[in-house]
Amino acid sequence: xNWDESYQKGEVFWDKGAPSPPLRRYLERHPAxxxxxxxxxxxxxxxxxxxxxxxxxxxxxxxxxxxxxxxxLYPKLAGRFxxxxxxxxxxxxxxxxxxxxxxxxxxxxxxxxxxDYRRGIDLTLRPGGLLIGVWFINPDLEPGYEGPPFxxxxxxxxxxxxxxxxxxxxxxPDVAFKGREGRERLRVxxxxxxxxxxxxxxxxAAMARVGLGGLDTAPLPA
Length: 222
Ligand SMILES: C[S@@+](CC[C@H](N)C(=O)[O-])C[C@H]1O[C@@H](n2cnc3c(N)ncnc32)[C@H](O)[C@@H]1O
Prior knowledge:
There is one protein chain. The longest helix is centred in the last third of the chain and has 16 residues, at about 195-210. The protein has helices at about 5-10, 20-30, 45-50, 65-75, 115-125, 155-160, 195-210; strands at about 35-40, 55-60, 80-85, 95-105, 125-135, 165-170, 185-190. It folds into two domains: about 5-190, 3-Layer(aba) Sandwich (Rossmann fold), CATH 3.40.50; about 195-220, no CATH class. It contains seven helices and seven strands. The chain is α/β, with parallel strands linked by helices and about 220 residues long. The chain binds S-adenosylmethionine. S-adenosylmethionine binds near residues 3, 42, 61 and 105.
């Protein structure tokens, strides 16, 4: 997928021209604080939303045209938008964020790149920080259409962050862009602080040794 070409051609069907309604509602009800990264920020609507809620927000996107358009749309926030690759973040972005806001970055990636996405989150979000995501759950694609967005289930989401993260909120939002009703999941994950993470990994390994592995991957209610 050539993201920049899509922006150059104006073929950006994912862009709704406004911030995600479920993310807005979540931040209204659960104020967050600190340095915040919006990976794959596109034209920057969620960066504007974060700034509106007092967060010290940075938008990152691999497509220079998306970043140029974000700066044009939100000139007061222009300095907050940077071109870069989540999979190989610049040194100053590493471990720098208290919060990551996810909105349709992950679902735009082919399944083969999901591990890179997870690593990108690990590299940027500090231990103890929050990954606040509206995850596009999209199992049904038109025949012959491969994506983006790519098929992604709640079980895929759970598996992607099974180690090193704990779920702190999880529900199907009651507000959505038209056409996305019931197809999104708001899930907030806390990156487990390192020492607890190591203990948890050790406990999982010990459980696997005595034949109790897989308990943490039991499906959550849909
Ligand atoms: C489906 S679009 C969503 C854009 C925006 N979040 C929105 O809701 O309008 C996915 C975005 O992720 C960006 N992207 C893809 N791979 C990336 C990477 N490795 N690092 C940073 N951004 C990336 C693309 O350029 C694109 O803007």
